[in-house]
Amino acid sequence: MSNFLITGSTGFIGKQVLKQLAQGEERLLLLVRSPEKAAAVFSKQGFGGSEAARRIHFLKGDLSEPNLGMKPADYERALQADVILHAGGPMSITLDNAEAQRTFLEGSRHLAELAERIHKARGLRHFIHVVGYMSPFHDGNVDPEADVFRMDHFMKDEGPYERMKFLADLFIRQQALRHGYPLSVVNPSTVVGASPTGATEQTGGLGILVHAVRKRLMPVVPGGASHWVPLVANDALAGLLVHLAREANPDGGTYNVLGRKETGPNMKELLALISRELAVPAPRGALPVSLLRSVMRTGLGRLTGIPAESMAFITERSFDTKATEALIERVGAKPLEVTGLLPMVVADLDHRLTHPGAADPEHWTRERKGDLAALVREGLGEPWVIVHGLLSGADDFVPLAEHLHASTGNPVWLLDLPGFGRSPLLREDRHSLESYVKAVSDAIADSPVPVRLVGHSFGARIAAETAKEAAGAKIETLTLLQPVLHRPKARAWRRALSGPRGTASALLRSLPAQALRNAMLREGVFAAPEEIPDGYVETIVRSLTSPRIAAANADMLHTLYRKLSAEPWTPALSTLPDTTVVWGTKDRTYALPEAYRDRPGTQLVPYGHQFPVSHPAVTAKLLAEQA
User: Fold this and answer.
1) Which class does domain 3-188 fall in?
2) Would you place residue 573 in the very low, low, confident or very high pLDDT band (cuts 50, 70, 90)?
3) Coil, helix or strand for 452?
């Protein structure tokens, strides 16, 4: 059994490495600051119970301290490592010089001392160092005599984060040459979330660009079409790292892990894609990167949240990727192409920037179903697939889904409709009901078994249309919670909200919480103030600060008020699967057609329109009775 010593295992890259190492036999020695917090993280990565106890050993320590801050017993255990994978250090490009030196340069010294002792005692099989694609060092330009701790003029115009990372690169290269152990330096480009979800918890990379575009703080293209920001997906990078760690006889070398400049989006194309996904105007014109960096150093960077150091990731260079391409061919991996993943990445980053610090609910995972983001709770049997309506998202239905899962044990999928939550906007026919139906149908197609489809409000109309199109082939049961079956009467403010996307989005983004609360009570969205969950209205208002989510709601309002008929939609119920309708009688905006009201499968409840949110346990009980 091989022993892997890994630093940075709780970081953005490290967690994906651990996920891919879950299926294996290696003993994993993880240098962490807090074993308790690390254990909680890894319980979600496929490690748990006796398997974790057998394979994972937490070594409490600190890169910046002598002997890596470990107690003697843990240091002795670290000396048993066959492979060192060094991916430690924060993704914080605004680190000051002292902190950057402690973290990167001192950390490399202490780790190299450990590597030397291992190699002299028993032979170190492989040292793998994760650095960055802008490092100037490679296999042919290492000066073994250079004193990295006295190179005060090295990259003096760059920020401490970059300088110290690259000096650490040089130092570890020197030590590997001096002591003779194999060294692989992996230089990833800017890392985005793993395929297929694109979930990117590290908002300090591409997230800086997303932040700048969504706040309209980037009116021009830095560098223009001749520049680019190379990108790589987290799982692709982790796959290469895991392969290198498992090589029996590594050759070492430098691996620039990024695609080719001519095949990826240039800076203009990347910003156009981000702008389209955020529903904001794309930057026009271009300015030199050096000029923009100088402007950001005046203090504007702090005011706008765009650090001058972030400009270092924008380049016009091409990179030598021959070694990486040969490695990819050896592994049989896919090319490092992320363009198709970027809409999911941008939507996820936008949601994280809109709701900073929001944690995923326990026991739920973020997945992708079709082209929609989804919250998924595992279980047995046919999945419950729940589709939300206006001003909502998957997260709002977690309390209902928790009760439903506890009652039935079935899997539950909570979908984010296009542009809502973490799903990308519709690209075409955004005012077409058929576009929403296709998005939900494609999501359902990911299930190997028939599903129990549930829709609320306008999501119920989408669910009914989906079931009608599917003709029951993939849908076991259909439940319509407060279905929107006709166009409501439009008051003046609703007419404005159902107008052009730009106007409606601006109105939604400026909507005060109290005004929204009053409107909900006036229209029977909730029957009484006490039915509104704590923080619910405030979360909606915060969501609408995202131009993407505001645009998605504007598109749905337009479809609702301009595309639906004023007459009730009453399809032949025989064309639908086994259907249940649950109707809240306190709703003052919508009416339930008699064709639905008088049928055996309809149940009336004394609540407002949003009863699945205000009364999740009752709603779950009604749903569970179908199972």
Assistant:
1) alpha beta
2) low
3) strand
